[in-house]
Amino acid sequence: MTLLAVENLTVRFGTTRAVERVSFALDRGRTLGLVGESGSGKSTVAAALLRLLPPAARVDSGRILFDGVDIAAAPERELESLRGRRIAMIFQEPTAALDPVMTIGEQVAEPFLLHGGHSRANALAEAHGLLERVGIPAHRADSYPFQLSGGQRQRTMIAAAIALQPDLLIADEPTTALDVTVQKGILDLLLDLQQEIGMAMVFISHDLAVVSTMADDVAVMRRGVIVESGAVGDVLGRPNHPYTQALLDAARTRVGPIESAS
Q1: Tell me: the pLDDT tens digits for 111-127?
Q2: CB neighbours of residue 83 within 10 Å
Q3: pLDDT, tens digit (0-9, with 9 covering 90-100), for 207-233
Q4: Which of 87, 84, 19, 98 is nearest to 53 (CA)?
Q5: CA 70, chain centre distance (Å)
Q6: Collapsing DSSP states into helix, strand and coil, what is residue 195?
Q7: Residue 169, SS3?
Q8: What is the pLDDT of residue 43?
């Protein structure tokens, strides 16, 4: 039931290796937490999974197998049929990811127009339903991103990401800039949607307390390398690598004991 298999992925920015020989697998319906401090390579891995790396970066070696398709080597046309339809992404900063001159209703409707074969009227109707589903009243569909709160912008991105019920959702630090109450609402929403749709999820975060509630398995990254991986309860409960232990110690200093929900 493996949906995503990353094999020895190496990504370079010029002569610098940002990610080196990263490997992990993800089954349908499960969540992998990808954790590490800023600069550890988490977001680079996320961008590579959709082949959305910046121009200065390139996949130097390895494979990214999604349901048998090697994303690292597939032609762009094949990737266009996967992005937004079978693989979707929630970006770290919704203000940068959302188009400031399009209403949120138009942006949530876009996947239906690009991949779903809907008319504009039907796509907008679907968008209204999705906005309601993520807790934004349908009458706000005519609002622009700057007219929304940070939590509402993040919910808009989630609505667009789940529009076509993807097999895989990549969530790159989806709650970093939100206050604790809004953060909990977003996390609960993602868990509910995952259970409803059955999607797999790569959940990227530096927050081990959040990952402990979201993930089935976890991979810990440091300087572009996975230093430890396994079931979330094993890795966070009985870490083997000193770096994992240091992350846990730092997290406990901030928020107290970390307990896995798995």
Answers
A1: 999 886 789 999 999 99
A2: 18
A3: 888 899 999 999 999 999 999 999 999
A4: 19
A5: 19
A6: helix
A7: strand
A8: 92
Please, what sign has the CA dihedral across residues 228, 232, 235, 236? positive
Measuring CA to CA, which residue among 19, 94, 182 is closest to residue 108? 94
Rounded to whole angstroms, the Cα distance separating 43 from 133 reads 28
Task: State both tokens at 253.
Answer: 């200093």
258 pLDDT above the threshold of 80 = no
* Residue 230 tokens, joined: 């396994």
Q: Between the CA of residue 229 and those of 32, 154, 226, 253, 261, what are the distances in Å? A: 10, 29, 7, 23, 17
DSSP string, 214-247: H-SEEEEEETTEEEEEEEHHHHHHS--SHHHHHH
- CATH number at 1-86+168-262: 3.40.50.300
- Residue identified by tokens 């307990």 is 259
> What is the domain partition of the chain in residue ranges?
1-86+168-262, 97-163
